[in-house]
UniProtKB/TrEMBL annotation:
Record keyword Metal-binding present: yes
Domain Pterin-binding as annotated: residue spans: 20-272
A GO biological process held by the record: tetrahydrofolate biosynthetic process
Protein's UniProt name: Dihydropteroate synthase
EC numbers, comma separated: 2.5.1.15
Pathway named in the protein's UniProt entry: Cofactor biosynthesis; tetrahydrofolate biosynthesis; 7,8-dihydrofolate from 2-amino-4-hydroxy-6-hydroxymethyl-7,8-dihydropteridine diphosphate and 4-aminobenzoate: step 1/2
Length: 278
């Protein structure tokens, strides 16, 4: 498996001997399930990133549209209004900037503004998505999702969740490679909570290494504060930090090279201890 991820202005080391990277979540939406729009004003977003950098974050993932189950679609112009000024303001912060979007127009504008990675819940399947990113040098995160955010949690079903998710991700890697995109730019995300039950999520978490072996690119895992953590712990969103950190450590143990989290300081410390002991 590749050990370097080409991520725009950065070449990220993701070998098994390297510490897994911590991607901090910056939601600039009014309806995020975890932070209720508190980082929407530009100054609040910049303060949060400054805090995450002080806490040791490795990457920043900026999102302008909530993808929680049942979330409404945000119009293109509104998503651009939310995220592009943030990218311009952060482009020289010293950390790779990821944009969480499935819209090709947002991808193009984000790259012009200085984004280093595109994180697409739709696996770059939208018409024009591959064209928007093909000739750039940004990193590309391919996620698996069953159906769409409006319907994905309506009785999700798989005959073999690990096999089906693995087949989808490896197929998308091959298709994007065939389209002329270097594999060194690609990573995968099994999409915890995106059209999966708790049992599906746990089965995927236990079998991350098989997904990595099939796709032969690094894996990003994002479980922070999600409903699977709440179902296991019985805690509301605001009290899911310990469960989320535990999930990140389990993902790292099973081969994840990037963990996407809200609670940066706690996750960074836990990953450092895990990595030192390992």
């Amino acid at each position: 498996m590749q050990e370097i991820l080409q991520c725009g202005r950065y070449r990220l080391r993701l070998g098994r001997e390297d510490r897994p990277l911590v991607m901090g979540i910056l939601n600039v939406t009014p309806d995020s399930f975890s932070d209720s729009g508190q980082f929407m004003p530009l100054e609040s977003a910049l303060e949060r990133v400054e805090q995450m950098i002080a806490e040791g974050v490795d990457m920043i993932d900026i999102g302008g549209e909530s993808t929680r189950p049942g979330a409404p679609v945000v119009p293109l112009e509104e998503e651009l209004r939310r995220v592009i000024p943030v990218i311009y303001a952060l482009r020289d912060c010293g950390k790779p900037l990821s944009i969480d979007t499935y819209k090709p127009e947002v991808m193009q504008e984000a790259l012009l503004a200085g984004a280093d990675m595109i994180n697409d819940i739709n696996g770059f399947n939208a018409p024009g998505a591959l064209s928007a990113v093909k000739d750039a040098d940004c990193g590309l995160c391919i996620m698996h999702m069953q159906r769409n955010p409006q319907t994905m949690q309506a009785a999700p079903h798989y005959d073999d969740v690990v096999g089906e998710v693995g087949d989808y991700l490896s197929q998308r890697v091959e298709e994007m490679s065939a389209a002329g995109i270097a594999r060194s730019r690609l990573c995968i995300d099994p999409g915890f909570g995106f059209g999966k039950s708790l049992a599906h999520n746990l089965e995927l978490l236990k079998n991350l290494e098989s997904l990595i072996q099939k796709a032969e690119v690094p894996l990003l895992a994002g479980m922070s504060r999600k409903s699977m953590i709440g179902a296991i712990t019985g805690k509301p969103v605001e009290d899911r930090m310990a469960g989320s950190v535990a999930a990140a450590l389990v993902a790292a143990e099973h081969g994840a090279r990037i963990v996407r989290v809200h609670d940066v300081a706690a996750t960074v410390d836990a990953i450092k201890v895990w990595h030192a002991a390992r």
